[in-house]
Fold:
Amino acid sequence: MGGLTTAERIRGALWGMFVGDALAMPVHWYYNLAALQRDFGVIRDYQAPRANHPNSIMPLASTGRGGRGSQDGDVVGGVILKGKRQHWGQASRHYHQGMQAGDNTLNLLCTRVLLRTLTAAGRYDPADFLLEYISFMTAPDSHNDTYAESFHRDFFANYARGLPPGRCAGAEGHDTASIGGLVGLPPVIFAALHERDPAAANAAALIQLRLTHRSSKLERHALEFSDLLVRLVQDGSARIAPLACAAAERLGFPASAVIERIRRNQQSDQDVIGGLLSSACYIDQSLPAVLYLAARHADDFEAALIANANVGGDNCHRGAVLGALLGAALGPAAIPERWIRGLTARIALDEEIENFITKFGRE
Structure:
């Protein structure tokens, strides 16, 4: 795919993010794979979530801050997710209650806020994003998702206490270093690459990450992700498989050896993700899982995203990161047209992506 232009690689990465998230959405955080297959079969196309989720921990999640805890707080319902509070206390309630096939989850909707903010300003300004993020998250009926990750709840708990937006990122908790933190980084990386400066791209990624996350472990993984995206976008000869394996190995996972063994023994991706690696959100497991899938299915966007959805766990956020990497590597033509057509926000997304590329997709 060495003939791809910079704009095509950025276009592929951005569409890949939204496709990867939407495909996994109905089975997000399924850890019981027998239940996943019972409820949905093999996920190959967009489906709507069921009302009940066999592995939901929403009744255990705090409504006043990040993590688990009391549901006496009113960050959920009072500050964000207005009109959604009633779903949090119900057993087996799906995290994305009421969403439709082809919808995107909250972190991807925040990425759209970032895309629009960057395009309007013509540059990356963290303060601009924070104002738009707060406006989007606190407005009634701005989106139809039901769940907000811990970092959102911590941010808005601090915001409700009167802290200035730049100081609202919550203290590090057990799930701060999670793959969801990487979802909002590609647009600022691509905007910084407009000046052809990889160091600026990495710096912008860390600035964006620190607005909502405090975690040195997450920052290390974010830099690996940023470096890989930069290579794929800037170097026409870059190949995703060796780059992804090298990144995984720097992070302590022997991806090349695992892929060789899996192929030799005719094992499945579930033997790796859910076997050797957890399918949960924690970054030390989830980013290596993404890199494994990117290398294992380096020439097949569709197979990679289907595999990601069907191993369960935090597959929405893994899917967004995986979609960005493979979309940058293979370009938009590698993404099944039915998946792009099936996104419920396709028309708006097309405008937002093309406007962004007009500003930042220098050839």
Q: What stands out?
A: The mean pLDDT is 96.
